[in-house]
Amino acid sequence: MAERVDDLERMWADLAPVGRSACTGGYLRQPWTSAELELRAWFGEQAAARGLAVETDAVGNTVAWWEAGTGPGVLTGSHLDSVVEGGAYDGPLGVVSALAAVDRLRERGVEPARPLGVGVFVEEEGSRFGLACLGSRLATGSAAWADVEGLTDRDGIRLGDVVEGGSSSLLAGVGSFVELHVEQGRALVDLDAAVGVASGIWPHGRWRFDFTGTADHAGTTRMEDRADPMLTFSVTALAADKQARLAAPHARATFGRVEVAPNGTNAIPSRVTAWLDARCSSDDALDALVAAVTDHAVARAERDGTAVTVKAESVSGAVSFEPSVVAGVAGPRRWPVLPTQAGHDAGVLSAAGIPSAMVFVRNPTGVSHSPAEHAEVADCLAGVEALADVLEEALR
């Protein structure tokens, strides 16, 4: 066990400084940037050290195969990119644990009856090009390259100018997927459990709200003469919070990103662009929540003399993991089963018809998408053992 602790800690020591802010401790590992490419190179080295055969598709999704047996392969893994000012564990824990699980299976003397792959999907967070789980959507064919190559990042750089792109057959031989992930909440803390299993993923998405008005002088323009889109946005943000609370505990609504033009201290803005992140326990509830927020925005814009347009940028429907798979993973071990409100590559693969499951590792802070995100070494090791157990059964 001590050797495995050293291996786990060594891998974390390798990853810890990559893309980390010296000021905040948060991470910026956006896809196709130096930090994320360094992590991908690290993954290639880890795969080579284990004798795994690496395959990469046109956008950078990667699978390292333990080539054994015959038939549909079993895939595990996660992603290496982060949100802006993200934590260390969201994504990389699943990749490191997958590599450690391969080591554990070999220590057990397991001889797989089918291939085992460790996968890394790109742009899972959607923090650069706005479409969450972009890599796994392309890998499964649920998104087409022609439809996404024109996406731009905050600097106006096109996805198609960053990576050549194209169709992907990377998952052609995959029969099932198991993703380990740090829990992004407090359920396992409250249940006093190191490991849990996902029952499904809430439907969720991102909507772009463009509020437009008239730029003018902040001092000389009378309040009654203004067409201020910031005011319309502010009231809409409050309305989103209220509508989500009315539906609580089965709804979430967040305006977490805002861009303002001309963004001057002494100027009324001409435009405010804001992104709504909304999540609910059902597809119908999500539609109703977004419709209610949109109605509030339109009504307020009419009152303010401004205008608003709303565009869905990334929407994922509800995912229910196959009950027999969930029961098979959780039942014999008495692991708690819980839903998740966060999106994951496992949800994309499941929606594409690949039987999938998720294993969660306790996060004592309950905080995610933040430098405060954490997992204890002992719980990480428990997660590795849990993942190895699930993979061993799947490989028979």
What does this structure look like?
The chain is of the alpha/beta class and 396 residues long. It has two domains: 2-202 and 318-394, Zn peptidases (Aminopeptidase), CATH 3.40.630; 204-316, Alpha-Beta Plaits, CATH 3.30.70.360. Helices cover 35% and strands 24% of the residues. The protein is built from twelve helices and 15 strands. Strands 1, 2, 3, 4, 5, 6, 13, 14 and 15 form a nine-stranded mixed sheet that branches. The longest helix is centred in the last third of the chain and has 22 residues, at 283-304. The protein is elongated and about 80 Å long. The chain starts with a helix and ends with a helix. The model is unreliable at 1-5 (pLDDT under 50). Keywords: Hydrolase. Belongs to the peptidase M20 family. Pfam families: Peptidase_M20.
CATH architecture grouping of the largest domain: 3-Layer(aba) Sandwich
Characterize the main sheet: 9 strands, mixed
Question: Which structural category do the helix and sheet elements fall into?
Answer: alpha/beta
**Secondary-structure element string:** HHEEEHEHHHEHEEEHEEEHEEHEHEH
The percentage helix is 25-40%
Could you name the CATH topology of the largest domain?
A: Aminopeptidase
Q: Superfamily at the CATH H level of the largest domain? A: Zn peptidases
- Strand residue content: 15-25%
Find the count of extended strands (DSSP E, 2+ residues). 15
Terminus-to-terminus distance: 25 Å
Instruction: Report the radius of gyration as a whole number of Å.
Output: 22 Å
Mean pLDDT: 94
Low-pLDDT segments: 1-5
CATH top level of the largest domain is Alpha Beta
Number of domains: 2
Total count of helical runs of at least 4 residues: 12
Silhouette: elongated
Keywords: Hydrolase
Protein name: Allantoate amidohydrolase
Family: Belongs to the peptidase M20 family.
